[in-house]
Task: structure prediction
Amino acid sequence: MSDLTALVIPVFNEAYVIGSVIDEIRRTGDYLIIVVDDGSSDDTWQQARQKNVLALRHRLNRGKGAAIKTGILAANLLAADIIVTMDGDGQHDPADIAPLVEPIRAGHCDVVLGSRLLDRQEMPRVKVIANWAGNFFTWVLYGIWVSDSQSGFRAYSRHAALIIDTRADKYEYDSKVIREIKDNRLRFGEVQIHTRYTEYSMGKKHKQGLINGLVTLFRMIWKMIA
Amino acid sequence: MLGGIHLYQVVVVAISSVMLFQGIKEFVSRETGQTVLKLLVRLAVWGGMALIAIYPNFTLFMARVIGIEGNINAVILTGFLFVFLIIFKLLSAIEKIEQNISEITRKQSIHDAHEQIEKLQKEIKEKRAKE
Result:
């Protein structure tokens, strides 16, 4: 029996690219595609629906982490064997899905993290520094060093998807998953992924910038005390 | 002052005890989001406040180390403690409300798509039965 792999794509105002992202994914394999529209003000949800995928819609914008959790919940309801999360802005290359899920399929890992930093040549220098800072604080707060703690391109086994439980709704979700890996003693690995930094994806306002990064760090520290 | 005990000492120790009790209870009952590091931070913050309230002379040692001296500090410290406590509780409450909103939004989105999900569940079941 072949494994059912679900792709969870959290999106916010991605009407311009979501259709082509879905088409590109379909050309690389037979996946169950779940798009979670996180309260977009444009017609992202309608665009996704037209592509005959499971298109879920948050009536309010709740953050990337919240959208991923909704997608994972839907994938669990559909009894997916492997769940992959990827960004909906076209930065992630669907050709990387197969190598990402392979360690789970082989039974070597529960979680596989896509890493942009295993090959730094593709990444702008400012992003390398920001990611290193993210990795450092993730290590300080959660105790595991990974090469790309902020990557949204990840794969989870069904076991991991059921067990991972975090309250993080915003960008700190990616780091909180690292903590869950440690707390639940999940087996994890890292696989190099290729990122396409287009004018469109780099120009988006809601991406994790310096201010958002500091807010994310504050949220991570705050949740240690509160 | 009553028998050498000041009112602020009772208040601070009471508040710290409640916060410490809650922290330890949440950690022991393994509630979501509770980690050893979080427990240690809580013990340091609230335990530290209780320590200063019980042993005020500890502040003299701190004042010597930090380099700030004077009784007015006690007033400022109490003010800070009060404001910190209010902010702490407010932010905690806001966070809880935010989580509840997310949970309602999630349930609503799944409910809105329940027909499509049920159809997919059927298709997947049939596909697996064939295999």
About this structure: Chain A has one domain: 5-225. Residues 125-142 of chain A form the longest helix (18 residues).
